[in-house]
Structure formats: C-alpha cells, structure tokens
Design goal:
The protein is mostly helical. Helices cover 67% and strands 4% of the residues. It folds into three domains: 94 residues, no CATH class; 277 residues, Up-down Bundle (Fumarase C, Chain A, domain 2); 65 residues.
Length: 484
C-alpha cells in the first residue's frame, strides 16, 4: 500500500519519529516477552523460538533510530515486522504475531513508557520535599506576618508555611503513586478487542514486562484511557499547587518584601541596569509549569467526547503531548527544588514586620474570652474597637483603648496594664501559644517535620521498590529469552 504524500508528510512521518523516541524500547521488550510466553505455552515450537530470538537479537535499535520514514511501512511496528521477517522468514516471523494485535501492543507500549514518566516526576517531587523539609527545619522559629486576601492576617512561621506546601506535595506523591498503579497493568493479550482462543498466559507476560498484573476486560484494555487521564490529572494538580507557591516566593523576593533571596546561580542581571537580581529561575519555573498544565488540559480535551474504543485520538498522535507534559512538569519541580535548596530568608526583616497591620489582635480577643469568660463574638467586637482606635490614634495607649472599648461594649471596663497587653500582642507569643495539632508553635512544627521525614522515607522506599521491580523483571526477561 502506498500512502498519500500529504498523509505521509503530516501524520505518518511525525508518528514514526515519535515512536522511535518513546516506543521502540518497549516494543522490543514486548516482542521478547511475547515470544517467551508463546514458547512456554507450546504455541510456538522451540526451534522457531530460537530463530525468532536470533531475528530479534539482530535488530540494532541504534540503527532503527537512524532510519528515515519513507512511507513503505505504515509505522514503527510494521517496520520491525519487516526486519523480523527478513531475518526469520515470513512463515516463522508470522508465528510471533499469534494471539496479539497491534491494538494491544500499542496500548502496552504506551503504559510502559508512561509509567517511567510518572516515576520520574514522582522522584522529582520527592527531591523537592526533601529540600523543603530541610529548609523548614532551619526556620522553626522564623516568624512572619501571613496574608489572606492579600492583606496582613496573622503571624506564623516560615516552617509552618513550608509544611503546608510539604503536606500538599505529600498528597501529590500519593496521587502519582495511584496513577502509577493504574498505569502499570498489562493489556498485552487482549488482542484487537476480544482476546484470543489460544491458551496464552497473560500473567507471564505481565511479570516479564514489569507489570503488576494483566488488565481485566479485553475490550476495556483497548478502549479505556482513564489511566493516562489519571496521570495527567495528578500532574496538573501538582503543578497548579506548586505554581501558587512560586507566586508567593516571587512576591517575597521583591524589594518591597525583601523576605527571600535566591543564590546567585538562580538570578540574572540586566543588560542596562547593573543593580538587578532578577529571580529568573522561579519565573521560568512558573512559565514551564503553566505549559505543563496547558498540556494536561489539552490531553483531556483531545479525549473528551471521543468514542469508547480503539481510536487514533488516544494513540500515537497524543503520546508526544503526554511526554511534553511530564517533561515540563519535572523541569518545573526540579528548578523550584534546586532554587530553594540554597535560598536565604531575611529572618530579621520578617520578624520586624510580623506584627504590622494588626496581625496579632486575634490573640487579644482570645485572651479576653479565656480570662473573662466572654463569648468570642463579644471579645472579637472589643478587640476590633481597640485596633480601629489604634489606627485612628497611633499614639494612644493600648490599655486606655481597651478600657474604652470594653466599657462601650460591656458597660464595664476591662483593664490590663501596658506590659501585659504588649505580651499578649507579641508576634512570638502569638505563635508559641498556638499549640493545637497542625499549628505554628515550634513544638508542633517540629513534630510535623518529623512526620514529613518519615512520610518521605516511606515514599522513597515505595518508588525504589517500583524501580527495583522493573529491573528484576528486565533481568528475568533476559534470562527467559536466553533459555529459549
């Protein structure tokens, strides 16, 4: 069959090149694993198996990568079929395709390379978590005034902020772990859509290819794409969450805030303004991350409202976009982790500004409620009058403002001396008294850091287990092939 030149130029050539990049290695492993299984199940004879093994061994993937697409063969699969037939002969070569289809082969290759991309991003997030945990441990006592709705809100610590980010990343790790599990099941043996009448062993090929198990329903093995959407969704959630953090970091790095300083290796100067220290690493991270989110959305859009079956919309055309999404997501995560590892917080400036804007006035309301048994709503009203009075009369004594406000609300004064009120409104007191689970008090953040270290170790062990399992499967496959 000769293909139309437009089809070759605009579709087949690109797909052939993309397949060589992402699918060639998985495809070769599939050929070997399927051959082993067919031989062990006595579907292919031992003599034919050895001929086929020799044919596969004779394929140089390095040479295949160099081959340009000329339209003679539809895709990489058929090109490799041609090479096998040249080496083994048509009759023997044809036996390798028993009990399989290009459909289940393609779906298996997609899952094999995508699990590697998920694992790479998973490891990148582990490295970022490690960097943030180390940074949080340095700043358990570093207080600063947090914002809500872009306005001064309450006092917390840098460790408390970073732990919020770390916990979010811990959930991202679990989402990627779930995506890996969903991806790491084996469609091989589902054939076109209904399986086969041959007595194949799908568990065997699954084990040889590093899958946890074979897929179930044979039609769903070919039709479903939710595993890839799960990976895209988990990636998008991780990058959107991290992007929000990067926005804060860029704000903290402005001269007006002056909270954060990146190491020299992550900033650039200006061609005309020698004073500039532009935080370009974080800007690039934000831009690259936005690309990853856009690619994730494009993947979902490409699949939306398509038929539930074997269609090109979910196959070769989409794989480069999936690859770009994972690549850009990993780039963002890696840049942020590297930039923060050696970043410096201006501890003195953060603490000096921590109490600005009435960030500790909530503690005055809490104190009134605790000491005098007031309903919090009433205490809140008194504290509100106090802070508004201070804003109107900056030189006024807080003790006088409290007497006036409490008299207006309660009809009777509540009195504290100035030193007592100063302690109540101290930013450090505000932090230290908040000892509830998940709060910013140093003992709570220290405990949280310990939990995050333990969670990181457990997740590192899980991903290492996946890597080791793939290595063991690869070794088992080579042993089984050599034994043919």
């Amino acid at each position: 069959m000769r293909f139309a030149p437009e089809y070759v130029t605009h579709v087949l050539t690109d797909n052939f090149e993309d397949a060589k990049t992402h699918l060639l290695a998985p495809l070769m492993d599939i050929h070997y694993a399927h051959l082993v299984m067919l031989t062990e199940c006595h579907i292919v004879s031992a003599s034919d198996a050895r001929v086929l093994r020799a044919a596969l061994d004779g394929i140089s993937t390095a040479e295949v990568v160099k081959v340009p697409f000329d339209g003679t063969y539809e895709d990489l699969f058929f090109y490799l079929e041609h090479l096998i037939a040249e080496a083994a002969g048509e009759q023997v070569a044809g036996r390798l395709h028993t009990a399989r289809s290009r459909n289940d082969i393609a779906m298996t290759t997609y899952r094999m390379w995508q699990r590697e991309s998920i694992a790479a991003l998973g490891h990148g997030i582990l490295r970022l978590r490690a960097a943030l945990i180390g940074l949080a441990a340095q700043h358990i006592h570093t207080i600063y005034g947090a914002h809500t709705h872009t306005q001064p809100a309450q006092v917390m610590t840098v460790a408390h902020y970073l732990l919020a980010v770390i916990e979010q990343l811990e959930r991202d790790s679990k989402r990627l772990e779930a995506a890996y599990r969903s991806t790491n099941v084996n469609p091989l043996g589902a054939c076109a859509i209904t399986g086969t009448g041959f007595p194949i062993d799908r568990q065997r090929t699954s084990a040889l290819l590093g899958f946890d198990a074979p897929t179930g329903n044979t039609y769903g093995s070919i039709a479903t794409f939710d595993y890839a959407l799960e990976g895209a969704s988990a990636t998008a959630v991780a990058i959107v969450g991290l992007g929000r953090v990067v926005q804060d970091l860029l704000l903290w790095g402005t001269m007006e805030f002056g909270y954060l300083r990146l190491a020299d290796g992550f900033v650039q100067s200006s061609s005309i303004m020698p004073q500039k220290r532009n935080p370009v690493a974080l800007e690039h991270a934000r831009g690259i991350g936005s690309q990853a989110v856009g690619q994730a959305q494009a993947i979902i859009t490409a699949v939306h409202n398509t038929p539930f079956g074997d269609i090109n919309d979910t196959e070769d055309d989409l794989q480069p976009l999936i690859a770009s999404m994972y690549r850009d997501a990993l780039r963002m995560v890696s840049i942020v982790g590297a930039a923060l590892k050696d970043a410096q917080f201006n501890v003195e400036r953060m603490e000096a500004r921590a109490g600005e804007g009435g960030t500790t006035i909530t503690e005055l309301a809490d104190t009134l409620a605790r000491d005098h048994g007031l309903p919090f709503g009433t205490a809140h009203k008194i504290a509100g009058k106090v802070i508004r009075g201070k804003n109107d009369q900056p030189s006024a004594m807080m003790s006088d403002l409290l007497v006036k406000a409490s008299t207006e609300v309660l009809g009777a004064p509540i009195s504290y001396d100035e030193a007592a009120i100063e302690k109540v409104l101290s930013p450090r007191h505000f932090v230290e008294i908040r000892t509830t689970h998940g709060g910013p008090a140093p003992e709570r953040t220290s405990e949280a850091i310990a939990r995050s270290r333990a969670a990181l170790a457990a997740d590192e062990a899980w991903w290492k287990g996946r890597k080791d399992a793939l290595a063991q499967s690869a070794a088992q496959l080579r042993t089984a092939v050599n034994a043919l």
